[in-house]
Amino acid sequence: MAGSLWGGRFEKEMDDIVKRFNASIGFDQRMYNDDIDGSIAHVTMLGEQGIVSMEEKDAIIAGLEEIRKDIEKGEIVFTVEDEDIHMGIESRLIQRIGDVGKKLHTARSRNDQCQVDGRLYVRREIKEIMERLRYLESVILEKAEKYAEEITIGFTHLQHAQPVTLGFVFMAYFQMFKRDLQRLSDTYERMNYCPLGACALAGTTLPTNRHRTAELLGFTAPTENAMDSVSDRDYSLEFLSDAAISMMHLSRWAEEFTWWNTSEFSYIAIDDSFCTGSSIMPQKKNPDMAELLRGKVGRVYGDLMQLLTVMKGTPLAYNKDFQEDKESLFDAIDTWKASITIFAKMLENTEFRMDMIHKQMGKGFLNATDIAEHFAKQGIPFREAHSIVGRMVKVCENNHCDFEELTDEELQKIDVRVTKETLGDISIPACVEARVSYGGTAPSEVKRQIEKEKEWLSYYS
């Protein structure tokens, strides 16, 4: 214990089982680049402020860059003796350049150090996740354009509701992932403040320049309150919330893929490379990627709940509990990135079987709402129109026929104001074409949505 970087007041060595329980190096070593970047910015500021000499600053930076190269080459292997990535790098720096390396930790604590590492790491991952979401959005736009005029069935309560274009369905999902991108952008902006220099919880008596370290690391500004800086994990919670919402969006579409793929629907043909077979049933082609995506959301929900639970009872300022902020964060990042990419590629390699979809168009009286609106345009109050069409549905069900097959006599019995002539064109294509309200499903409106979102995505990239 006395040999550790913090062990001056200890006389006994840490028990081996405690070492293993206490160490985070097994998972936080993935932040080595962020730790080194933060240390270089910190010692640069120390040099500029005259807290260390420029020669000492240069020696420390050179030593840190050598350690970075050795980690990347696999020549450094971290163990539980290192405790965490911060101690692992600093102890090796001291071994390599001697006592000068001991000056690196001047005017900082592991408390603010792990915070700046975490923010740098999450900030970098946000950029990559946004890029993957942009790729998914580009695939959605391509598919929406391809199927902009193809008619499919819109559901509510998993029952046939109204006819819509398939492009319209794609653009509905586009909006979900657009909000995911916007949420991530907001999170990035809110978290982009530098905690480095907050020290343990109260700042420092040394003449540091926190604005300079914030500038060097590309942050908007330093954080305002040192105590909040070291105890804040809101940025991780907000990021995990973003992840959970986005994974829910992926899961919803994966659910639709699963039932679209069933024999009862047969709406889609997923490429073989995204499916598996059965170990006993030779005929099976299972939508396993969609099912896995649907299941992966549970992991990310769990990651969010884990960190919320860690944080709920922690007093100011730093607590060892906070070490538990990383594994859930890393797991969510890895799961979310993989899920976006897998889904985008699966979507890209899925074709819609319009012949099978069209066979289902005659079921469920898809044009019922359009008929009610047609009556309303003729001056019949909508509630009366709704009732008339409801009675029409009942007659059709009893006679096993469609609206178009009702005779004038049958229509007059339902309501004297209704004839085949007043009914007008109630074909499914006509119903879809007429839904030109802003945000509606008419092909012309879907194409407007596509062009608008192409422009947005181009700007957002």
Q: Give the spatial strand order of the biggest sheet.
A: 1-2
Distance between the termini: 51 Å
Low-confidence stretches: none
CATH class type of the largest domain? Mainly Alpha
Order of helices and strands: HHHHHHEEHEHEHHEHHEHHHHHHH
How would you name the CATH homologous superfamily of the largest domain? Fumarase/aspartase (Central domain)
Task: Please identify, by name, the CATH architecture of the largest domain.
Answer: Up-down Bundle
Helix content: 55-70%
Structure description:
The protein has 461 residues and is mainly alpha-helical. It has three domains: 16-106, Fumarase C, Chain B, domain 1 (Orthogonal Bundle); 111-149 and 165-352, Fumarase C, Chain A, domain 2, CATH 1.20.200; 368-460, Fumarase/aspartase (C-terminal domain) (Ribonucleotide Reductase Protein R1, domain 1, Orthogonal Bundle), CATH 1.10.40. It is 61% helix and 5% strand. The protein contains 19 helices and six strands. A two-stranded antiparallel sheet has the order 1-2. A two-stranded parallel sheet has the order 3-4. A two-stranded antiparallel sheet has the order 5-6. Helix 6 packs antiparallel against helix 19, helix 10 (234-260) runs parallel beside helix 12 (326-348) and helix 14 (368-377) packs across helix 15 (382-399). The longest helix has 37 residues, at 110-146. It is elongated and about 100 Å long. The model has no long low-confidence stretch (mean pLDDT 94).
